[in-house]
């Protein structure tokens, strides 16, 4: 599905959208996406968690989730609290050094799909 961010600040889609799972949950920053992209996401029928622009700018959505555990930056307390309220185990890491290079937790992982 094509999704487009609104400007260069959102240079990777994983800064604007994160698949949480559990089973069909998506965290996203609507402000980071253009109107057609927002409409596409809203029409998917998923459980959507809106993330503030401020937290998204601090790599809140650059996370890893297996559907039960979410590993994410410590710089997004509201998102972490929301995930915990949904019964997910949240691991928060200091990502200060990663952020200096323009990345977050997801940038440190290799996801292998077992099909």
From TrEMBL:
The superkingdom listed in its UniProt entry is Bacteria
Which Gene3D superfamilies does the record cross-reference, listed alphabetically?
L-arginine/glycine Amidinotransferase, Chain A
Q: Name one Pfam family in it.
A: DDAH_eukar
Name recorded for this polypeptide? Amidinotransferase
């Amino acid at each position: 599905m094509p999704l487009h961010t609104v400007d260069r600040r959102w240079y990777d889609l994983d800064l604007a959208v994160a698949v949480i799972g559990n089973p069909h949950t998506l965290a996203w920053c609507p402000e980071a996406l253009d109107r057609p992209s927002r409409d596409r996401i809203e029409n998917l029928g998923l459980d959507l968690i809106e993330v503030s622009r401020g937290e998204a700018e601090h790599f809140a959505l650059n996370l890893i989730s297996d559907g039960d555990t979410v590993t994410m930056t410590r710089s997004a307390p509201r998102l972490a609290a929301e995930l915990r309220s949904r019964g997910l185990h949240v691991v928060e890491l200091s990502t200060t050094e990663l952020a200096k290079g323009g990345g977050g937790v997801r940038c440190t992982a290799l996801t292998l799909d077992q099909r």
